[in-house]
Design a protein that fits this description.
By secondary structure, the chain is an alpha/beta fold. The protein has one domain: Rossmann fold (3-Layer(aba) Sandwich), CATH 3.40.50.1950. It is built from nine helices and six strands. It has a six-stranded parallel sheet with strand order 3-2-1-4-5-6, with helices on both faces. It is globular. The termini are far apart.
Length: 242
């Protein structure tokens, strides 16, 4: 019997799992109900444009978040990133085959139902280069810290910990309760990286998009993914100390 997650292409059938190439990678993206839909959508866009394969799982409150903050009604490429889905890709001359280009993008985005705890991303034998939960709510943070795998998102995160793969938790809520702090401590000791969505201002952001890119760039750096976002400090002129 062949087991396959709903919507997964044939190459994801158990027993036919391929190891990601060195040039591009396979990543898991989780979206929960903390505010910050713009972060998640931008990260997804950059990964797909970079040729990476993304396995997406969205919690129930994550779906509400996407609807409330970004007007997303369907968890598809067209619903999440309509501009990307309707574009002709990265060809500056606009001469690529739009249907083929959009089809390739859609093929690299695999959406898993959060209730499907038997999906491939819940298995340690499914190879990928890391998981990001962006944004990560306090509720999901606590569930992962306590070892609760009652849904696919938290179970996939627990698999990352046991397999010693990168797990990036982009917690957004503030202020922090002692429970949050203790959960962060527990997860850090277990091998996760807690990356709060706190943008820096030393690059002199001029738009909200600049602040979003700062966090997305930091997340990509933690995953080891090359990108062209201008998010790194490159030094500045010396300050007159006189």
């Amino acid at each position: 019997m062949v087991l396959r997650s709903a919507g997964c292409p044939a190459f994801l059938e158990l027993g036919v799992i391929r190891e990601p190439s060195s040039a591009t990678g396979r990543f898991v993206l989780g979206i929960t109900g903390a505010s910050g839909a713009a972060y998640a959508l931008r990260l997804l866009e950059v990964l797909l444009r970079g040729g990476h394969e993304v396995h997406l799982v969205v919690s129930d409150y994550g779906r509400r978040l996407l609807a409330d903050e970004a007007g997303v009604r369907t968890i598809t490429l067209e619903g999440l990133l309509p501009d990307l889905a309707s574009s002709t890709g990265d060809d500056p001359r606009g001469q690529c085959d739009r249907g083929r280009d959009v089809g390739a993008l859609s093929g690299r985005l695999v959406v898993h139902p959060n209730r499907d705890v038997g999906a491939v991303i819940a298995s340690g034998s499914f190879l990928h280069r890391g998981m990001v939960i962006l944004p990560c709510s306090s509720a999901s943070l606590g569930a992962i810290a306590s070892g609760s795998g009652s849904n696919l998102l938290t179970r996939a995160a627990m698999v990352c910990l046991k397999e010693r793969r990168p797990l990036i938790l982009c917690h957004r809520e503030t202020p922090l309760s002692l429970i949050d702090i203790e959960n962060m401590r527990t997860l850090t000791l277990a091998g996760a990286t807690v990356c709060p969505t706190n943008p820096g201002f030393y690059l002199h952001p001029r738009r909200v998009e600049d602040l979003v890119d700062f966090i997305v760039g930091k997340t990509l750096d933690l995953l080891g993914v090359e990108h062209g976002l201008k998010t790194r400090w490159e030094g500045a002129g010396r300050v007159d100390q006189s």
